[in-house]
């Protein structure tokens, strides 16, 4: 079995084949499999089997897989408000050079989770403290630089500006991390990563970006989204539910810049293959370069061929 297509990419058909191979190994049905996500990971729900299969789409993500397993095990021991690994499965499962993790399936239940749920979940999550094993440090600049190094359709002036931005922001990130040692950060805290269970319990998932750093990072996406996506009201509700207004934090300018750097650079690997994303990337970059806080951005996921990038 092979999981790569003719272009060397991990395509949907190949990931589906890999998922069915794993289901056969586990001796569980996969006739009702549903593809939930196809980004850095291919995520499939298998409701009849009561599991979710999550397959990495790159060998460079293997370290993350092992980190996620350790975190999920620790979260379960602490009875944290998180999704759970499937019991009695040796994790991870290798599949054609990639790694898969198996999770308990959560039947989505109405009403959908809210930003108030996010605030309450994050308070519990941050109160867990740091786990008794090392986590990577929060480093949005390193992530941005890695995306820029892989760019194919980035103009020289754009690359120069973004690299200079990284250089300018890096020492501020390092200083903020130094003051925030030992703090648990989810790393991608948004309502889309929440699930409400049939027992009316809200849990959070996706621990790939979980790290150590300033806990305030997890409160930044909502207020930045209000400004850039012209959304109103959610930040006030999040601040009330969590009990803290991150926009009043002394480090808010650095936190906001770090989030915007991520929101701009997320598109860089897709510039050559997704024209809509390329146009939106340049809208975002132009507004940052000119200091225009009123320019409206469009979520990448709303654009055709966006490939699930936010």
UniProtKB/TrEMBL annotation:
GO terms for molecular function: transferase activity. Keywords: Transferase. Gene3D superfamilies: 3.90.1200.10. It holds the Pfam family APH. It comes from the Bacteria. Residues 51-257 form the Aminoglycoside phosphotransferase domain. InterPro entries: Aminoglycoside_PTrfase, Kinase-like_dom_sf. This is Aminoglycoside phosphotransferase. It comes from Salinispora arenicola (strain CNS-205). The lineage of its organism: Bacteria, Bacillati, Actinomycetota, Actinomycetes, Micromonosporales.
């Amino acid at each position: 079995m092979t999981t790569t297509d003719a272009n060397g990419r991990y395509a949907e058909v190949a990931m589906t084949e890999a998922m069915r191979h794993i289901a056969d190994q586990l001796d569980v049905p996969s006739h009702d499999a549903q593809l939930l996500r196809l980004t850095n990971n291919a995520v499939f729900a298998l409701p009849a089997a009561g599991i979710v299969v999550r397959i990495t789409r790159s060998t460079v993500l293997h370290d993350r897989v092992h980190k996620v397993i350790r975190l999920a095990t620790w979260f379960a021991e602490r009875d944290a408000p998180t999704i759970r690994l499937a019991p009695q499965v040796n994790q991870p499962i290798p599949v054609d050079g990639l790694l898969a993790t198996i999770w308990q399936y959560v039947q989505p239940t109405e009403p959908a989770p809210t930003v108030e749920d996010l605030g309450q979940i994050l308070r519990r999550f941050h109160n867990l403290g740091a786990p008794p094993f090392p986590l990577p440090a929060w480093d949005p600049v390193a992530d941005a630089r890695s995306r820029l190094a892989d760019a194919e359709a980035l103009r020289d002036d754009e690359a120069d500006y973004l690299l200079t931005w990284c250089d300018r922001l890096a020492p501020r990130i390092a200083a903020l991390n130094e003051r925030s040692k030992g703090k648990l950060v989810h790393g991608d805290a948004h309502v889309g990563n929440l699930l409400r269970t049939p027992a009316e319990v809200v849990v959070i998932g996706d621990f790939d970006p979980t790290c150590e750093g300033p806990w305030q990072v997890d409160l930044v996406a909502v207020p930045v989204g209000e400004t850039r996506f012209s959304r109103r009201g959610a930040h006030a509700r999040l601040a009330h539910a969590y009990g803290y207004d991150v926009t009043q934090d002394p480090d808010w300018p650095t936190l906001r810049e770090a989030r915007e750097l991520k929101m701009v650079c997320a598109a860089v690997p897709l510039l050559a293959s997704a024209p809509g994303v390329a146009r939106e990337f340049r809208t975002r970059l132009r507004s940052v370069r000119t200091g225009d806080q009123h320019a409206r951005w469009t979520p990448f996921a709303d654009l055709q061929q966006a490939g699930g990038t936010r």
